[in-house]
Design a protein that fits this description.
transcription regulation, DNA-binding, Transcriptional regulator, two-stranded antiparallel sheet, alpha+beta
Length: about 210
Amino acid sequence: MRTYGQFCGIAKALDLIGDRWTLLIVRELLALGPSRHTDLRNGLPGIASNLLVDRLRELEEAGLIRREAAPPPVATTLFTLTDRGRELESVLRELSRWGVPLLHESTGLGTFRTHWLAQPARALTDRTPDEPPVAIQLHAEGNEDLVLEVNHGVVHTHPGRVDEPAATLTGTPQVLTALLTGGLSLHDAEREGLHLSGELDAVRRILPER
C-alpha cells in the first residue's frame, strides 16, 4: 500500500484519496448517486477501464464506497458512497470553491458534463428561503440536463428533467458555469447567449452576489 508514512491527518487522508482520479470518482457518485461502471466511465473521460476498476476496489477496501445490486429488471452492479464517503462532500465543495477563479481565468474548454455543476450549485444560497420550493432546469448545449431544486434555503441537484420547472436556463457550458459561480451577472450572461425562460425571480433567488 502506498503511504506517506507520516503521522498527520492530511497525509493519512491523502494515503486514501490522493491518487489521480480518486476524488473525481467521489464527485461523480455525489452528483449522480448510485452508478454503474459505465456511468462512471462517461463522467470520467480519459480514465482507462482497468484503472477505474482499481480505484473502485481501493475505495471499497477503504470503506468509502460499497457495491449493491440494482433492483429488477436491471441486472447490474451499482456503486454508492458510504456515510464515510459522503463526508468528502465538504472537501470537494471547498476544492470547487477554490478552483472557481481558475475557471474564470481559463481561455479554453475541456470536456464538460452538466452534472459537474452540482458542487457549485449546491453551494449557492437561497435568498428567499421562506418562498415556496422551485425547480430550475439547466440545459447546456450538447449535454445532459441538470435540475436545481431550491427548497427552504437549500439547493439540491439531480441529473435529468422535470415536467414544469419554474425557470429554464439554456446556454453554453462556459456561460452557465460563469453564471453559477459569479463570473457573469445574469445581464452579462444573456449578452453572451444565455436564454432564460420562465420566472426571473426563481433564478434570482440563487444567483451569487457580485
